[in-house]
Structures are given as structure tokens and as C-alpha cells.
Design goal:
This protein is of the alpha/beta class and 289 residues long. The protein is 43% helix and 10% strand. The strands form two sheets. A four-stranded parallel β-sheet has the order 4-3-5-6, sandwiched between helices. Strands 1-2 form a two-stranded antiparallel ribbon. Strand 1 and strand 2 form a beta hairpin. Helix 12 crosses helix 13. The longest helix has 14 residues. The chain binds adenosine-3'-5'-diphosphate.
Length: 289
């Protein structure tokens, strides 16, 4: 199926019609934030589901009941998707936890006034690409990616859901009011999950004991999270996501692009990356390797 059939255009980017509609996007635009809301913002395939596990566990101080009884999309919903409207978010006790894939420039008016806390998760774009390719092949609400070479150009051009990775990251890195934003990378979380959990807890104003941090880190390890049916997307019918083709929680490592991109594909990626990121003054962990 084509882009026109599967996607809506919203503020210059594609969003999948299956979970977005003009009404859900209007709800997002009119959403009233509270100062104590916490939003994990990610470009797709950068660690959204991981944050939907970590943050509720930090808030519950390690009580695993919420992550074993509520699906990731209910416990920490996407504000721009249909479901948000139906979840009675007004009634949720603080801190309310949300996720969003939106660019900084797409955030609603109330966001800029209220300045809720944001945790912006970034991932090596070559790994985002590597994770996206099988995902576009297994999810029926996405345009078939074609060959890897074809999808590479589609991805680098930003003709994918939520647009260009480069614009997303540059927009959020250039955000005003950076006191309200914590930047973290997928690679940092892979390297030291306990330290990352501790950093996130401090940012949201929670002091956790070492014992609780260890418990959360253990639960959020890839192999453990993969067993949680509330987080591994096994509850999504196979006509929407065919996890026999590729699992949603696929590999959970940093640097998998090395196993998936040819030298020519990596070189093509690097040349576009170099050009698009030339004015960005931020030390990305993946640039060091
Ligand atoms: P891979 O496809 O490389 O395995 P998102 O949730 O933003 O869509 O991102 C999905 C990616 O995050 C997938 O990457 C998935 O496996 C990875 N992921 C999810 N939970 C994880 C965890 N606990 N540890 C490491 N990676 C995780």
C-alpha cells in the first residue's frame, strides 16, 4: 500500500493512520500540560518502549505491578495517538507520564507555556535505521520498505513516519528552556543502565535506594522486558504486527548496524550524517566509536 493510503501528513511529516487521525492530532494540539507532567520524547526506534518501562518503575519506586498489569501504551500513552483521548488523562494523579514522537516544533502551545519535564532519548541513527527496516516490513500500517538500499534513501530523505531523524534531533537539541529537558542516549543506557536510571530519577525529583535502582535495572534488562507481555507487543494482533517476521523487541544492542549495513551503505549514511549534522555542537556517544 502507498503513503497516501497508510499515512496522514501532519505538520510536514507522515504519521500512520492506524493510530492517528485528524481528531487525535487536534486533541494533541489542544492538550493542556501540567507542570509536573513527564514526557519521554523519541524518534521512533530510539528506546520509547524502554522508557515506558523505566519511568513507571521509577515513579512506583520499584513496584512492578503497573508494568505487569497495564500495557506500555496505556501506562505511558502517546499524546498524539487516538488512545490518548479515551484514557481520561485529566483524572490521572501526578506525575502523569506520556510519550511523544513529535518534533520540538510540533509541540502544542501549552507545552511552551507550562514547561513540563522532557526526557529526550537519542540513538545512533544507523541503529535507528537498522531497527526500522524490519519494523517497516512487519507492521501492516507502514509502507513496505522495499530493498535495504531503497529504504536507506527513504530514511535519509525523511520520507518515513515522523520525518527526518536529523530534523528531529536538531530540533530538540536546539530547544529553549533546556532546564526542563534531560538528554540521554540509548547507548548510555546500554552502557550503564543503573547509572541512567539514577540520573533519570534525580531529574524527575525521586530519590531511590541502590536496592530499588538495581531492581528496576534488572526488570528493564532486554531479556527480562522481552518476557513482559504488557511491553513486548505480543498483545497486538498479528494482522497489524507480524512478529514472526521480526520481533518488536528485536535485538536490544548498540552497534547492530555493523551487522546489517554494507560498507557502501554505511559510507552513504556517514556522508549524509556529516553534512546534515555539521552545525550541531553536541557530543554524541556514537561519534566516539
Ligand atoms: P532493536 O530493533 O535494535 O532491537 P522503540 O521502542 O522506540 O520503538 O525502539 C525499539 C528498539 O528499542 C528496539 O531495538 C528494541 O529492541 C529496543 N529496546 C526495547 N527495550 C529494550 C531494552 N530493555 N534494552 C535494550 N533495547 C531495548
Amino acid at each position: 500500500m502507498t503513503e497516501a493510503e497508510l499515512y496522514l501528513q501532519y505538520k510536514g511529516v507522515f504519521v500512520p493512520k492506524l493510530v492517528h487521525s485528524p481528531e487525535s492530532l487536534q486533541f494533541f494540539e489542544e492538550f493542556t500540560f501540567r507542570h509536573d507532567d513527564i514526557i519521554a520524547v523519541t524518534y521512533p526506534k530510539s528506546g520509547t518502549t524502554w522508557m515506558q518501562e523505566i519511568l513507571p518503575l521509577i515513579v512506583s519506586e520499584g513496584d512492578i505491578t503497573p508494568v505487569l498489569t497495564l500495557t506500555n501504551w496505556d501506562r505511558m500513552p502517546w499524546l498524539e495517538e487516538h488512545r490518548a483521548k479515551e484514557l481520561n488523562l485529566e483524572q490521572r494523579p501526578p506525575p502523569r507520564l506520556f510519550v511523544s514522537h513529535c518534533h520540538y516544533s510540533m509541540m502544542p502551545e501549552s507545552f511552551f507555556k507550562v514547561k513540563p519535564k522532557v526526557i529526550y532519548v537519542m540513538r545512533n541513527p544507523k541503529d535507528v535505521f537498522t531497527s526500522s527496516y524490519p519494523y517497516y516490513g512487519m507492521a501492516m500500517y507502514m509502507v513496505n520498505p522495499g530493498t535495504k538500499d531503497e529504504f536507506l534513501e527513504t530514511f535519509l530523505d525523511g520520507k518515513v513516519i515522523f520525518g527526518s531523524w536529523f530534523d528531529h534531533v536538531k530540533g530538540w537539541l536546539g530547544a529553549k528552556d533546556q532546564d526542563c529537558i534531560m538528554y540521554i542516549s540509548y547507548e548510555e543506557m546500554i552502557l550503564d543502565l543503573k547509572a541512567s536510571i539514577s540520573k533519570i530519577s534525580l531529574f524527575i525529583g525521586k530519590t531511590l535506594s541502590q536496592e530499588v535502582i538495581e531492581k528496576i535495572a534488572d526488570h528493564c534488562m532486554f531479556k527480562n522486558m522481552k518476557q513482559n507481555k504488557m511491553s513486548n507487543y505480543s498483545l497486538v494482533p498479528s494482522e497489524y504486527m507480524d512478529q514472526k517476521k521480526s520481533e518488536f523487541l528485536r535485538k536490544g544492542i548498540a552497534g547492530d548496524w555493523k551487522n546489517n549495513l554494507t560498507e557502501a551503505q554505511a559510507a552513504r549514511f556517514d556522508s549524509v550524517y556529516k553534512e546534515k549534522m555539521k552545525d550541531v555542537n553536541f557530543k554524541f556517544m556514537w561519534d566516539e566509536n
